[in-house]
Design the sequence.
């Protein structure tokens, strides 16, 4: 068993880079709490909350949900996590305003990020992945169609009762094109914010899921305060 004490990590990358996929693997291997802004919004959507209704239109068009809503939701969520537990953020921050708000909120608790892991994948591969992606409604774990048969999994193999598998409403061709364009315009500049702080680690993401996972583990082994310890 491996544990990461209090590591604070951002999984960064374009839509379809594999942030959710890698987060699930890290949660299993290191026991780090996974905080996905997209999953939080989808949870609100499926519960029919006011916040979910507000986010729906932005998400379906592939646009960013306004900062006034998003920042408070994510900061509240990480405030619930104990110092010793650490967390990995997936899908947040997505612009410089969010990155600054996160830095300020952590600073108020005398905390800082340990690493920002940037998973690099070309747009053509992202489009291929997102058009083949299916997600479990219960645990949000992403799956792909079988490359040989083109058939998606019938049920989630990880949920005890086999959660329903569905395609996200924002994985349409038009929404994916918009998400990629917004990533390049608004989100990619955040990379420079973290490069200047010496936190950024770039990982080539067009390799097997396991190969990417091993690269992330190697990076976390050198991540300072939250160093990965094996037991
Ligand atoms: P969010 O849910 O965060 O979506 P996203 O960033 O567009 O990313 P995805 O979840 O699509 O991709 P992923 O990187 O997790 O890839 P995955 O592991 O699934 O956000 C959705 C929306 O919510 C946003 O558009 C916005 O409206 C709103 N929102 C969220 N956060 C916000 C914020 N901070 N501010 C404002 N608005 C916000 O993998 C994809 C597929 O590829 C899967 O099928 C997987 O099996 C496959 N795959 C993964 N790795 C590999 C590999 N190495 N090789 C081959 N296939 C792979
Ligand atoms: Mg995801």
Sequence:
């Amino acid at each position: 068993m491996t544990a990461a004490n209090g590591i604070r990590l951002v999984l960064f990358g374009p839509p379809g880079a594999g942030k959710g996929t890698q987060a699930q693997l890290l949660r299993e291997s290191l026991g780090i709490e996974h905080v996905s802004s997209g999953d939080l919004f989808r949870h609100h959507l499926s519960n029919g909350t006011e916040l979910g209704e507000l986010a729906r239109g932005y998400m379906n068009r592939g646009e960013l949900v306004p900062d006034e809503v998003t920042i408070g939701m994510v900061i509240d969520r990480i405030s619930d996590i104990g110092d010793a537990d650490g967390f990995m953020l997936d899908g947040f921050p997505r612009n410089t305003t969010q990155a600054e708000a996160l830095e300020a909120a952590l600073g108020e608790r005398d905390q800082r990020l340990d690493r920002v892991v940037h998973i690099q994948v070309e747009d053509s591969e992202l489009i291929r992945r997102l058009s083949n992606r299916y997600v479990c409604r219960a645990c949000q774990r992403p799956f792909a169609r079988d490359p040989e048969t083109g058939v998606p999994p019938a049920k989630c193999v990880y949920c005890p009762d086999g959660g329903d598998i569905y395609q996200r409403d924002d994985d349409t061709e038009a929404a994916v094109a918009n998400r990629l364009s917004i990533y390049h315009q608004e989100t990619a500049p955040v990379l420079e914010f973290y490069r200047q702080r010496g936190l950024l680690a770039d990982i080539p993401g067009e390799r097997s899921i396991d190969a990417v996972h091993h690269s992330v583990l190697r990076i976390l082994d050198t991540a300072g305060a939250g160093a990965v310890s094996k037991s």
The mean pLDDT is 92. The pocket of BIS(adenosine)-5'-pentaphosphate (ligand 1) is lined by residues 13, 15-21, 37-38, 41, 58-59, 62-65, 70, 91-92, 94, 98, 129, 132-133, 142-144, 170, 179, 205, 208-209, 212 (CB under 6 Å). Residues 2-121+187-229 form a domain with the Rossmann fold fold (CATH 3.40.50.300). The chain has one domain: 2-121+187-229.
